[in-house]
Design brief:
Layout: E1 5-11, E2 15-20, E3 25-31, H1 34-47, E4 54-59, H2 66-74, E5 78-82, H3 84-90, H4 99-112, H5 125-158, H6 164-193, H7 196-206, H8 213-222, H9 232-238, E6 243-248, E7 252-258, H10 264-280, H11 282-293, H12 298-319
Parallel strand pairs: 1-4, 4-5
Antiparallel strand pairs: 1-2, 2-3, 6-7
Helix pairs in contact: 5-6, 5-8, 7-8, 7-12, 8-10, 9-12, 10-11, 10-12, 11-12
């Protein structure tokens, strides 16, 4: 597709602000619903000869782009979503902020990057349900851990002085949360099982030693069932595992370190996966011990194992063949 026009949309819960970069035209804010979409369509027909070369650029705003994406797909308009930080940093120093200004900046960003932006597809209903269920499951797990930690701390500090009614109530809440976690995980597995490509890739990911339920599902979501990343290095970078050099001239020689710009949830899960893999995979255990003997820091070696796990998952998905554990030499 040859891009001839860029429209930036600043999406919020209730309104949409649109700006066409080449034409330098802005549409007054419209509602984020079918009425607003019709207004955008009329405006585009008025300003553009054809919609064939139009690319719409938006920021990731969670569920607020849900209806917009489906409107664009329905009318054959290509779109792409980009992280807000990426757009902000690409524009340098900016003074002032409003939804109208943001729409103009987004369209400018799109025009500057039009050669490298790849149009996206609307997520399937299964993928959307999977995101919702996994997000709910993570919140339940966090709430259970919060109650557990609070109760343990109260008992350790106050002993028998803790109110019995409070203890009973907190234990009851934890039991309910525990049961809800089980039910939600069951629903997630049933949902994955209803989609053959998802089920296949889930099983392949779990075949890698150390990769469990939560890590596999979060990777399915983040990679859109392993269609979002064409190169394993990009996935490693997205997970915050790729090391980057920090140096300048002859005076600045910083340590090679990973970036804080990453999917921190997957990064955290991969840390636990790496620890598990070191315990149960002979090859990775040998690699871990060897790197420690070489004098590398423990977390540096853990990071090497995290990257190795991502490479293995990426490889089994690409080959569509389950991972086979190899004995250390």
């Amino acid at each position: 597709m040859k891009v001839t026009a860029i429209m930036g949309i600043d999406v919020s819960k209730k309104t949409l602000d649109c700006h066409l970069f080449v034409q330098q035209k802005s549409l007054p804010a419209v509602s984020n619903d079918s009425k607003g979409f019709k207004a955008i369509k009329r405006w585009l027909k008025k300003e553009l000869k054809s919609l064939d070369g139009l690319l719409v650029v938006m920021e990731y705003t969670g569920i607020y782009t849900y209806q917009v994406e489906r409107f664009l797909q329905q009318h054959g308009i290509q779109f792409v979503k980009r992280p807000a930080l990426d757009i902000k940093r690409s524009l340098g120093m900016v003074r002032g902020k409003s939804d109208k200004i943001d729409a103009r900046f987004i369209s400018k960003y799109g025009w500057m990057r039009k050669e490298e932006l790849q149009p996206m597809s609307v997520l399937s209903d299964t993928q959307l349900e999977l995101q919702q269920l996994m997000g709910h499951r993570d919140k339940l797990v966090a709430d259970h851990a919060s109650y557990q930690c609070k109760l343990k701390e109260m008992i350790s500090q106050m002993g028998e002085k803790v109110n019995e009614k409070l203890i009973t109530s907190m234990k009851l809440v934890m039991e309910v949360l525990k049961q809800e976690i089980k039910e939600t995980e069951k629903a997630i597995k049933e949902l994955i099982g209803s989609d053959e490509p998802l089920q296949t890739n889930y099983e392949l990911a779990c075949s890698v030693t150390g990769i469990g339920f939560a890590t596999a599902v979060h990777m399915l979501i983040a990679t859109e069932n392993f269609t979002r990343f064409s190169d394993v290095r990009k996935l490693i970078c997205y997970c915050g595992v790729a090391p980057f050099e920090h140096s300048s001239g002859t005076s600045i020689r910083g340590k090679v370190r990973v970036s804080h710009l990453a999917n921190k949830k997957i990064k955290s899960l991969l840390t636990m996966a790496a620890i598990s893999a070191i315990q149960h995979d002979p090859e990775l255990k040998a690699k871990y011990e060897q790197k420690l003997k070489e004098g590398k820091a423990k977390m540096c070696v853990i990071n090497i194992i995290r990257a190795k796990l991502i490479e293995r998952v990426f490889a089994v998905i690409k080959k569509q063949k389950a991972y086979e554990v190899r004995l250390a030499p």
